Amino acid sequence: MWLLPPVGAFMAGASLFPLGIGLAAGVAIAVAVAVVLALLRTQPEITVGPAGLRAGKAFLEAEHLGEIEALDAGATRAALGPELRADAWLLQRSWIRTAVRVEVRDEADTTPYWVVSTRHPADLAGALIRCRDAVDQEGQAAHSEQTGWPPSS
């Protein structure tokens, strides 16, 4: 992913170089900025709040959070390979090698689990467990300061 802006800028600049170095440099810079902005805009966001887990555009309510497992690189590779079920929901970014697997406990939902890639699987799993346990103990979601993700620091 990090190669897209410089490669795109180089290709745009090289194709316009015969028309002038100033034009080529200006277009190269514009292409690099546009690619960076497009990558930032399309990056999925993962948040845990009192109501549940939001991963990209999908949302899993706190009362439907089941078993939660932080996956290291090897376990993530297995979860996305030989162990993967076709009906699982994935938010996978190939450059992130770790993930969290979240069991879905909703009889109306045929999705057995989610696999969400994250650079901080232990922190995300901890936030999800606190969110789930707060719902289990109180019957309602806990205050967002207790379950929030990502960390505010």
Strand content: 15-25%
Number of domains: 2
Give the distance, in angstroms, between the N- and C-terminal Cα atoms: 26 Å
User: For the report, how would you describe the main beta sheet?
Assistant: 4 strands, mixed
Helix and strand run = HHEEEEHEEEHH
Which spans have pLDDT < 50 for at least 5 consecutive residues? 140-147
| Shape field | elongated
Helical fraction: 40-55%
Q: Return Rg in Å.
A: 20 Å
DSSP summary: helix tally: 5
- In total, the number of strands is 7
The SS-based structural class is alpha+beta
Arrangement of strands in the largest sheet: 4-6-7-5
Give the overall pLDDT as a whole number. 84
Quick recap:
The chain has five helices and seven strands, in the order ααββββαβββαα. By secondary structure, the chain is α+β, with helices and mostly antiparallel strands.
